[in-house]
Write a sequence for this structure.
């Protein structure tokens, strides 16, 4: 391999995620796409055909009627990915699950099961849950605060990784002559006792060909970045303008090294919704059209409200300065309610301007004819903004335009693979297989 | 339909469940069957080809090295069934999940997701978790007591059913002209506040073609039977000698009616591991051979220990009278530790005899040439012992013998379907689709 290559993941949004609230009206989008397993299988097979690294399924658990169409009614990630697994052979299968609202034993087992079903292609995107309303679906009156959620997340991942090592790789000789199915010395309890969890183990599931599922994370806040640097092997990064993406990339790699880890063993994916057309002009027009189509101010406000516990901003005068809502931000989520407030104050923005700017933030930097989009991707890659892109498309046709138009150019420039390196997600991402902690001579990843 | 028909489910045991501890040595059994999704897909497709009602996946979460081979290393039921779903079209997909060690919102969502993925074929076998050691995987020092586990199970099912009704059936008009994707009046919070759970809802998933997943249960104790009579639509029954099966069947139907429910809307499945051969004599020989092969006393003791919190009976004199272990039985599980003790006392049994009798209990009543097995099944069915049989086979070949030999005879006698009645599990089991509780004019199931 003459140069470092780009990783690509596909992020399907069914009938429409944030900033795509009108997508369900597109005649090319099936009205039930978000709950139709065949839609996901088609997306996965298209991604695998294009040699993408992974299918990335995000998640949330709190809704109200103002939420994006795809959020209202969608399949649960692990059941979805298990169904997709047997229809693909190389594609990584990354699913979001909350460390705040699950038990480590249950969740570790489900990801290990997906890892077996897929032959070593499972990835877990660890989230601490963003919507404060989620807590009320789990018996809590209040969302757990930031520090508790991130402390819990770190311990949760460590417990899961401990459970995944319950069996050493050669625990099952299944030797008929010696009448030994299991070598009991290679089955290990965990006996974890920590601040948030007590888990005895062992897990009733052996390791897959990739050793352990790959840990993804989506840290933006201080706590999130630190968690990522400690345990993440992939990051679902916020993206944004080039300079911001560069700073984030450098910061995560620096923090990872500071924790004694190889910074190459954490792959940073930015979110990208490329708009490809025959000419640059046509692509620009289409991008503006999409933006205007979705430029529904009520929806922007509802999304802004998500960062403040589904706060309803619409009852206020939108052209007054952004209000003092710091008390709502204390338990805030991923996109950083505190940062929104800070920026609004610094730049003296009205509420309308804040909501509008969030929509602008989601506009893609990758717009143009195939050659142009490939140029922009290469430029961003070389500028140290990402290791991979998490691609979202509005329709199956737009995915096809990217795959047929842009991917071959990236391949010609030796920026993207021409065949899979491995059958496992770790293998394709260039991540090491963690040695089992109980195996003699194990040194860790 | 001239007469009532039998339902059949398939219960795959991979490398060997209870009483099959030597099965992994059979050259026809793949050493990794229990973790190989293709084994389950083949089993499911064979069951569907034979027009069976369902694939039934049981589960447990606590192991030690003495447990049956299949328990040591097996796939998690919901990921497994999701993978199987897209390779089948009519077969019901019933998975075991614990109401003691899950949260209702998470679990309701996963079963609803499987229900969508399968187009209305999901069933949930509600268990309260039998192995007392499971508690230590979930941060509890002590297993919850019987009353608490069953109280929690009832409320858990009611919460799940409430969440499954979050959306009315016509909640998504997806009307482009009127610009209405969701009709917000048809999305309902649950706002459940009970003894064990507080769950606000709504669930972010709509109803499937069968309205709600089918509820299975496996109640043997007083609390278990009562729970079944209140909420179960299918039962995984203990079986045993004919008279015992008759009493159980009549008791469950009576209790169901006493709760104001139609006793026909609870389908009782007994466990059966038929042994079919060309002649009765050959089948009897084979059955004895299997029994002797698996007649490993240490394994019987380990299984007996399961009912007493993985108690190690092997340290005692096995030919002394059964000891006073009532204190270990207080939190006991499904097969009724208390009943074992009572019987041991009444019949003045030694420990060895108790362990041996548990093994005898698992011997199948359905042994013989195909015609004989069909006769026995008809006889048991007409005697009011079951609505369906949960069939377990040692090998894929033995499943084939049953399907090719016995099923056609049952069909000739009009005891088993010759084509599927429906594409949903409810449809094939003859269970009603529960009306959504929020829909005007709804009367309930």
């Amino acid at each position: 391999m003459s140069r470092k290559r780009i990783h690509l993941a596909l992020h399907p949004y069914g009938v429409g995620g944030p900033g795509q609230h009108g997508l369900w009206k597109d005649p090319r989008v099936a009205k039930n796409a978000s709950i139709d397993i065949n839609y996901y299988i088609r997306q996965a097979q298209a991604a695998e055909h294009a040699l993408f690294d992974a299918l990335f399924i995000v998640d949330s658990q709190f809704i109200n009627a103002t939420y994006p169409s795809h959020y209202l009614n969608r399949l649960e990630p692990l059941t979805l990915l298990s169904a997709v697994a047997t229809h693909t052979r190389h594609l990584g299968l990354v699913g979001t699950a909350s460390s705040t609202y699950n038990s480590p034993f249950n969740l570790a087992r489900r990801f290990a099961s997906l890892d077996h079903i897929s032959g070593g292609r499972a990835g877990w995107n660890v989230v601490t849950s963003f919507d404060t309303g989620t807590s009320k679906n789990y018996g809590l009156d209040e969302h757990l605060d930031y520090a508790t959620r991130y402390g819990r997340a770190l311990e949760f991942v460590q417990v899961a990784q401990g459970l995944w090592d319950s069996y050493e790789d050669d625990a099952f000789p299944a030797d008929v002559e010696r009448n030994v199915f299991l070598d009991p010395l290679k089955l290990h309890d965990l006996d974890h006792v920590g601040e948030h969890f007590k888990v005895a183990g062992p897990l009733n599931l052996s390791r897959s060909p990739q050793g352990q599922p790959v840990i993804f994370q989506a840290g933006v806040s201080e706590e999130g970045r630190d968690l990522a640097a400690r345990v993440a092997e992939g990051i679902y990064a916020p993206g944004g303008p080039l300079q911001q993406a560069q700073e984030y990339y450098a910061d995560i790699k620096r923090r990872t090294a500071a924790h004694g880890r190889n910074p190459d063993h954490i792959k940073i994916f930015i979110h990208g919704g490329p708009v490809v057309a025959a000419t640059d002009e046509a692509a620009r027009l289409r991008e503006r059209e999409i933006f205007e189509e979705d430029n529904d101010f009520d929806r922007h406000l509802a999304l802004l409200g998500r960062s403040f516990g589904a706060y309803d901003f619409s009852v206020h005068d939108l052209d007054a300065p952004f209000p003092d809502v710091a008390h709502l931000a204390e338990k805030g989520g991923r996109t950083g309610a505190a940062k929104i407030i800070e920026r609004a104050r610094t730049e003296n923005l009205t509420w309308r301007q804040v909501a509008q700017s969030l929509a602008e933030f989601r506009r893609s930097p990758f717009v143009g004819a195939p050659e142009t989009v490939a140029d922009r991707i290469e430029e961003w890659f070389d500028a140290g903004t990402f290791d991979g892109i998490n691609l979202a498309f509005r329709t199956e046709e737009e995915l096809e335009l990217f795959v047929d138009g842009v991917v071959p150019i990236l391949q010609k420039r030796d920026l993207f693979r021409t065949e899979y390196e491995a059958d496992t997600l770790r293998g394709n991402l260039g991540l090491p297989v963690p040695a089992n902690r109980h195996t003699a001579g194990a040194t860790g990843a």
